Structures are given as structure tokens and as C-alpha cells.
Amino acid sequence: MIQRQRVERINVGIFAHVDAGKTTTTEHILYESGRIRALGSVDSGTALTDSMEVERQRGISVRAALASFSWRGVQMNLVDTPGHVDFLSEVERSLRVMDCAVLILSAVEGVQAQSEMIWNALRKLGIPTLILVNKMDRIGADPAAVLTQARTYLSGDIVPVQQPLYREREYIGAADLWSEGADAAARTELLEALAERDEELLELYMAGGTADLAQWKRELAVRTAAGRMYPLVYGVAAKGLGVTALLDAMTEYFPRAGGDAEQPVSGIVYNIQRDKSMGRMAFVRLYQGTIRNRDTVMNYTQEVQVKVTQIRKVEGGRTEDVGALEAGDIAVVYGLSGVRIGDVLGRPEAIPQEAKLAVPLLTVRVFWGADADDHKVIAAFQELADEDPLLDTQWLQEERELHIKVMGPIQLEILDSVLQERFGLKVTFGQPSVIYRETPSRAGEGYVAYLMPKPCWAILRFQIEPGPPGSGLVYESLVRSSDLLPQYQNETARRVPEALQQGLRGWEVTDLKITLVEGNHHVWHTHPLDFAVATPMAIMDGLAHTGTSLLEPILQVRIVVPEENGGRVMNDLVQMRGTFEPPVLQGERMIIEGRLPLATSLDYPVTLSSYTKGRSTFTSFFAGYEPCPPDVTAERTRRGVNPLDQAKYILSVRKALQG
Fold this sequence. Notes:
Keywords: Antibiotic resistance, GTP-binding, Nucleotide-binding, Protein biosynthesis. It comes from Paenibacillus phytohabitans. Abolishes the inhibitory effect of tetracyclin on protein synthesis by a non-covalent modification of the ribosomes. The protein is α+β, with helices and mostly antiparallel strands. Strand 32 (584-586) and strand 33 form a beta hairpin. It is globular and about 90 Å long.
């Protein structure tokens, strides 16, 4: 048997806060590598990875874009991710399938809110990371201050492997600290950083063994690949300065993608897009095995066999049929009928965990004119929800209302453009309202004996207890299989999260532990769907006994304003029920960090920009749900019949199940 030569491959994501220069960096990487012959531009709408019309018009990335190229004999799959917080779901999905990451920081703005959030996700997943300090030629560029910030807010294990040559308009590039003529003090700092983290290297350093720089560089590569140290480089992506050095650093410090092409298939669908001629495009990262054109593969998540019609590499508007997808690689797979984001293909064992970043905090009602076809509008939003499940499109049949969940106002603007461009539909959106949650106020029990009208028999008793903040739902069963058959227990466990979608006030119930402490079925009269009917009644009975407390979303904010506006900002924060740390003066600017309820601060960025005459920045990210003050109330209209009205609920559900 002929042994196939293994291709060296690196899968790397480009991440940053908005406007730090991700797409520009990607464009220059593709140009320097020879993948494209002419440079595109974000400002002129010609960047390869901004393929949507709305991206070209707005000059921002909305979708994660995949590009492939070769550098020094290594195949690279590069994903350029959106920087705006409203498109965090795209970042989240990309993080899951990347082996390595480049985090870009602006040499002027430094570490910003989203940089910090992405960094925490990268560390949670153990993804090796390089840092590029971009925009070194800008007025106000301060690499020393950015390094201090990075070590304070991100990690003390960040180490520069270059020495910047001048700054601001005089910046001409950066010197490699591993080269013979490098700055002695800067190199000493690099070697000491390595020596401090390894006893053998420390002994070598103390003995004066620093001549073999190649050995020290290999040691840094080992620590980088293990996610224990993070090399930092400098550049000006818009001018191509430092891009070649960045590419070299990626090949020198990043580990290669693993996986065995001969093993059974194991992969994940991390993105769904539409192609006008080819239909649904499933972006697949394969961890084990090989998929070829016309193969049949198992969709493990949906438990169905699906047929592959074609496998392509897609970049911008261009596609190339590659015929096969091997372990370690990423490509677009066509023909996977009914496939959804997050579906596992083949075996699940090789799939890594995911980091949850994106939480939609606003709900919006969609309106359209009388001349528009309801079915077309609903179908369009359902198609968009296939591509971004967090939209959670809900059509309320009885009320004839369509509701979606969004991250923020920019996302609504983009949705408006996409609906017109792609579907020819004109819609308007209602005023966004905050998504609250509920949590049990105390411990209690929920019970139901669903015995009428015959034939049915399902008895359930749940213990419901409040859980720690951020714990979500924890479920377990203490019932023996002799009392309640495993198939009925499985049906009950499956229905518990559904039953918690609407609590006493109509909001999702979270941060609780539910234990099934009693369960019975009847040998003759029980049908598995009896537990689909009984579970929501028992859960709601329990919540009626525990009561629920209201939770509201809280933002972590960083506000930078001229010093003279600092007093007003702090007063505003107090008025909005916010809390903040002592402000920090940086030149003539004041930096204020704190926490704010989303409900009181929805319009504040606009207000702040207005009274500071545009000389302020307001950055925020979701920090979690916290209890509302007693005087804050928020109710949501319940969809469907309340399970607390058991007689009416049983009739409605049985009718629906029969239908």
C-alpha cells in the first residue's frame, strides 16, 4: 500500500475588536502569499473576504470568511471574523474550528472590550495565539502602553519577538529579536521571559548559554503551541509592513492541524450559507477521516444518512471543486439535506468543545406591508435563522406576529439590507425590547398526576432548587428504571428545557437544578407522549410553589471621554443603576470602566457621542444576568396555553400532538 504524504496544514482565525484592521490584514496576507494578484480594500469595497454587498457598502465584516493559501510549503486555512459585537455569533462558530489564532490590537486604542472577551474564549479553548499590534504608523500609536495593557488585561505570558523601529509617522518596521544584530536589551528581556518559565532554560541562561538562539526559539514555539506563551509582533497592515514577518511567525510558532485521513469520519458543520446556483453551502471542519464527492455520510446529530454532491473551496465569490475533504482541512460541502449549524458528521469523539460568547439580549417584532406575502417573509427569516440560529425566528400563528432575537441595532440594519438584496423584501422592525430571564426564588416541588382523560398515565414529581448565577439548567433523575422505564425518563428529560422556555412571567427560566424524585407509568395505559404532556405541567406547578425572581442582562463597559466630560459620565452611570471603578486619567482623556444594566443604557452610546461631540468611545460586552431591583418589573405575553391551567392545556396539547 502506498503511504500518502501528509500535507502540513494550519487553520488560523483572525480576531479583533472592530476597526483594528482584521480584513485589511487578511487582504495583505493573501496578496503577500500570492493568492491574489491585486490588493483589495475595505474602504473601496473590494476586499476578497467581504463578499456580501452589504459588507462592501458598509466597510465592515458581517460574516466569517474562509480563504486558503500556501506559505513556505504549509497550507493555510484563514478565517477573517467580524469585529463588531453584533456579529459575535460568527466569531463563536469560527473559534470552535480553529487550531490557532491571531489577535489584532490597535497600537492606538490598545486592548478593547471585544479583544478581552475573545482572548478569554481563546484561553478557555486552549488555542495557541499570536498577537499583532497593528496601525503602528498612526498618530498616538504607543506600543509600550499597548504591551502593558495586554499584559494587564490579557496575560503576563505575552512576549514581543520584535523590536519596533520608531513609531507613528516615523515607523519603518520591526527588527527580529532572534536575528544577530537585534537590540541587546530587548532580546535579553525575551530570553529572561523564557528562562523564568523553565528550570533547564534558567540554568542554561545563568551559565551564559544564550548563543544558540535557534534552540531558544524552538522552546518558545513549543510553549506557544501548548498555549502557554504568546509571541507579539508589530505592523502596519494597510501598507503591508510586517505582513511577511507575521506569516513567518505563523509557520514558526503554530502547531499543524492533526487528524488521520484513514480513520472513520468525524467533522462538524460550523457555518451555513446560500449559493444562488448550488443551494445550501455547509462549511465543514473535518477532524478525522475523508469525505469525497458522492459519498454518503452519517449526520450524527439528526441520525440520518446524507449524500454529498460536491466539495469546494470557496473564497469571496470564487469556488473551486476539490473533490475531497481530508482530516485537518476545511471546505464547503454541498448536498447535505436538511443540515444545520452545529451538526456532527460521522463520529462525535474528535470534536472539540465550544465557547459560548454570543447571547442575544434584545427581541424585536418584524412588520411588513399588506402587499407582502406572509409566507415569503416567514420563509426568508427562517432561512436566515438557518444561517444564524441565534435569530430564533418565531412565528406566532394565533397573534400573526413574527419575532426575532438580535445582538444590537447594527445587526438590524444589516438584516434590512440582506432582506432587500437577497429576497426583494421590505420590512420594518419594532422598538427592540430587552430579554429578561427568571430564576426560582426558593426551593420547592412540582407534581402532576396525568390520569385523565383516558387513555393516559404519567406521574411526575420534581425537586426544583435555585442554582448559582450562570449555571443554566442542571438536571438529574433519582428514579429507578423499574418505576419509570428509561424511554419515559428520556422523554421527560428532553421536555424539561422546553418547559422552562416560559416561566411565570413569560421569560426563560435559568440558573436552577431540577431533580426527578418520583415517576410512574402504567403497563397498559401509558404512551411515551404522555410525559411530553405531563412534564410542563409538573414544572409549572413547581415554579408556582417556588416563585421566580427576575434577572436582567448586565454589560461590562469601558468609556473613554475628554477629561472635562468625566463628571457627567459618572453621574449618568449612577442614574442608570450602574457601578464603576475609580476613573483613570490618560493624558487629557478619562477612562471609566464599570457595569451597566442593558435596559437603562440602550440609547446611551448615542447620547454620549452627542454631548462629547464625537470625542468619546463606548465599548461593551455581555457580562451576565443579575437579579433586578424589586421595583423593576417585566412581563412577556405567554405563547400558547399556560400549563398551570391543566384542563385547558391538556386539551390543546393533545389536539396538537394528534395533528
